[in-house]
Q: What sequence folds into this?
């Protein structure tokens, strides 16, 4: 196959040769992308057709979400569904005219064969090119109207009734038996958790909290949670979180970890803290670059047996036979472990249409530690120690297997999400390792993916080089990471950089006339659409994260420009918030921040003093989402913060100890120094 990158070389070849473009969009850990690669792109006859009749372009959707977003919109609009690999045929002017997802090499399973499609499209292009190009222009114009976002209603963009409506929608789709929203397959759409927890914090509606807690408990029990190594797989193919699609994505680890941390803050229940720790330890062990950045993903497929390195199966790295476990563990530890994690002699996977789990088991928490102890008449403490020891033996043995392919590219947006998680984890769990991981990753991005003279971010780093101008997602998610890191560690450089990057984001992406942010800059003429993304799916949308950043920064700096930008964005999405709130839960969470009458918590004193640590412990162990936190630790910092919040200038900076000011709309209660008084004020 003669693949081209997305760029002028390929476009010019298509124009000069009057050829249609075949665009394949996927990503490195995509199972069906690998299948189509093996079946079709490596097929000599099909490759010859592609090379003869088309200019073939391959795009990594994670590097170029802008390209993916445009053509996914087309495929979904014309076929009713989407996914990867995505196959789209374009005119030389990059306008789409036919598309779909996976195509088998021959007619199969109700899908037309890829080879026959290539032949038919080539014949149509040769015989009726002008009609195809006219149709493509018409389609693009329709898509442009479809994706347009602008204010369509007067009055407030949202109110408490908007949140009630959204809660009711999620309540109706909630699985009250197994957690999650909707049926199989089940995805961990964590932005829904973020909204529900904030709705609970404001309304004290315990049902919203319980929906999240049940979901988190069931997710942790299931096979979607890597019971040995930590970290969550992409999704569950069933409704009980048991049989996963085995790829692991960095953005899932980041968001799920935060959800467990917030559940721990809201309840004080250590099981949620323990679940977060397992995620963090996995990322530190298996997903962290030597320089401190975080890698993107691990593949679902892995080598079944070392003697057959080309033979791969989904989840092969993670599954176990009963015989393997008995060979590694002595009795009675083997029996205890198998009871705890649901291991059977044949297989514990009852529905296995492709025979991938014959004789193998997916580990899941079939019984609790206490249930296992009672079953075998053992003390719970001794049983927990024995099970931990057994898990360590199996994890060490598993580490000798051939690991799944790791996608080692480092993406600014996803690193921003993981920085947020580690920053919060370091503070909430009081773990210096997690705090340091957040700091190192931040310095990695600043040192390698940020160009200080221009104030711009780059999207991707790999093999010693950074490339691709950053998108809205990169700016918004990295700024979120900077704000969370500042509120955890109080290095003012991070707050100042968050301000500068937000100003650059406004310059590059904001539609100041109609409101909201485009996903891409306006000077890329190779894109047939500029989209204002708002759907909060597996990843939160750039607009939702941007709004949350803007309302936080407006509160922290008292800048009208940030507040106005947030208001324009929410006004642009007012119809979405009112008519389709289930699509924008992360934006709803930002709205909850405002409805919760956010507080400014200003701490005065030395950041490392025992008195300050005592106040911070009260802050970080409570779920108080509608607040911002600032630290005044020197005359210089006091002067800098007072430029935005004048009342800071009159605050007393104690030479020893620490003082806390809790304010609403910059009007502060009397300062307190006692942790108990501080806890009462913030709660």
A:
């Amino acid at each position: 196959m003669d693949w081209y990158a997305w760029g002028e070389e390929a476009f010019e070849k298509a124009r000069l040769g009057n050829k249609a473009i075949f665009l394949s969009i996927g990503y490195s850990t995509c199972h069906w992308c690998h299948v189509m690669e093996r079946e079709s792109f490596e097929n000599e006859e099909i490759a010859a057709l592609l090379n003869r009749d088309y200019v073939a372009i391959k795009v990594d959707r994670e590097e170029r979400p802008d390209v993916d977003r445009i053509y996914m919109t087309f495929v979904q609009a014309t076929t009713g569904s989407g996914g990867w690999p995505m196959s789209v045929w374009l005119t030389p002017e990059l306008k789409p005219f036919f598309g779909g997802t996976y195509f088998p090499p021959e007619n199969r399973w109700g899908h037309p064969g890829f080879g026959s499609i290539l032949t038919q499209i080539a014949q149509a292009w040769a015989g009726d090119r002008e009609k195809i190009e006219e149709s493509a222009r018409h389609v693009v114009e329709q898509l442009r109207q479809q994706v347009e976002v602008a204010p369509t209603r007067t009055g407030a963009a949202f109110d408490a009734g908007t949140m009630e409506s959204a809660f009711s929608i999620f309540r109706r789709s909630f699985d009250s038996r197994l957690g999650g929203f909707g049926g199989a397959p089940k995805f961990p759409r964590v932005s829904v958790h973020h909204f529900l927890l904030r709705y609970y914090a404001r309304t004290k509606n315990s049902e919203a909290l319980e929906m999240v807690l049940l979901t988190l408990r069931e997710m942790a029990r299931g096979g979607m949670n890597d019971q040995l190594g930590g970290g969550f797989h992409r999704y569950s193919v069933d409704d009980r979180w048991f049989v996963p699609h085995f790829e692991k994505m960095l953005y899932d680890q980041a968001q799920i970890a935060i959800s467990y941390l917030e559940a721990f803050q809201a309840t004080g229940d250590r099981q949620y803290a323990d679940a977060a720790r397992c995620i963090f330890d996995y990322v530190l062990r298996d997903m962290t670059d030597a320089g401190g950045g975080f890698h993107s993903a691990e593949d679902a497929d892995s080598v079944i047996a070392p003697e057959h390195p080309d033979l791969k199966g989904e989840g092969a790295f993670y599954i176990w036979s009963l015989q393997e476990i008995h060979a590694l563990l002595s009795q009675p530890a083997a029996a205890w472990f198998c009871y705890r994690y649901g291991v059977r002699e044949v297989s514990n996977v009852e529905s296995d249409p492709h025979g991938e789990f014959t004789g193998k088991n997916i580990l899941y928490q079939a019984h609790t530690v206490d249930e296992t102890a009672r079953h075998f008449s053992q003390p719970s403490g001794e049983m927990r120690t024995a099970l931990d020891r057994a898990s360590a033996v199996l994890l060490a043995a598993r580490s000798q297997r051939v690991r799944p392919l790791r996608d080692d590219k480092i993406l600014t947006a996803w690193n921003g999400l993981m920085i947020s998680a580690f920053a919060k984890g370091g503070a909430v769990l009081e773990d210096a390792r997690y705090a340091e991981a957040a700091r190192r990753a931040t310095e990695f991005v600043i040192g390698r993916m940020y160009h200080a003279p221009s104030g711009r971010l780059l999207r991707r780093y790999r093999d010693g080089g950074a490339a691709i101008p950053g998108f809205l997602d990169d700016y918004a998610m990295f700024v979120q990471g900077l704000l969370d890191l500042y509120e955890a560690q109080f290095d003012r450089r991070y707050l100042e950089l968050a301000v500068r990057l937000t100003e650059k984001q406004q310059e590059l992406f904001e539609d100041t006339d109609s409101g909201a942010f485009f996903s891409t800059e306006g000077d890329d003429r190779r894109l047939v659409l500029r989209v204002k993304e708002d759907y909060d799916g597996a990843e939160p949308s750039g607009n939702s994260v941007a709004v949350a950043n803007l309302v936080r920064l407006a509160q922290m700096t008292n800048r009208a420009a940030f507040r106005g930008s947030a208001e324009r964005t929410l006004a642009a999405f007012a119809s979405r918030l009112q008519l389709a709130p289930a699509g924008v839960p992360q934006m709803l969470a930002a709205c909850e921040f405002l409805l919760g009458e956010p507080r400014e918590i200003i701490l005065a004193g030395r950041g490392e003093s025992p008195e300050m640590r005592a106040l911070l412990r009260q802050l970080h162990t409570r779920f108080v989402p509608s607040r911002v936190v600032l630290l005044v630790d020197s005359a210089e910092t006091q002067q800098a913060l007072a430029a935005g919040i004048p009342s800071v200038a009159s605050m007393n900076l104690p030479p020893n100890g620490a003082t806390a000011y809790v304010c609403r709309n910059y009007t502060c209660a009397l300062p307190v120094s006692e942790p108990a008084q501080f806890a009462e004020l913030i709660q």
About this structure: The chain has 26 helices and 20 strands. The chain has a mean pLDDT of 95. The two ends are 62 Å apart (CA to CA).
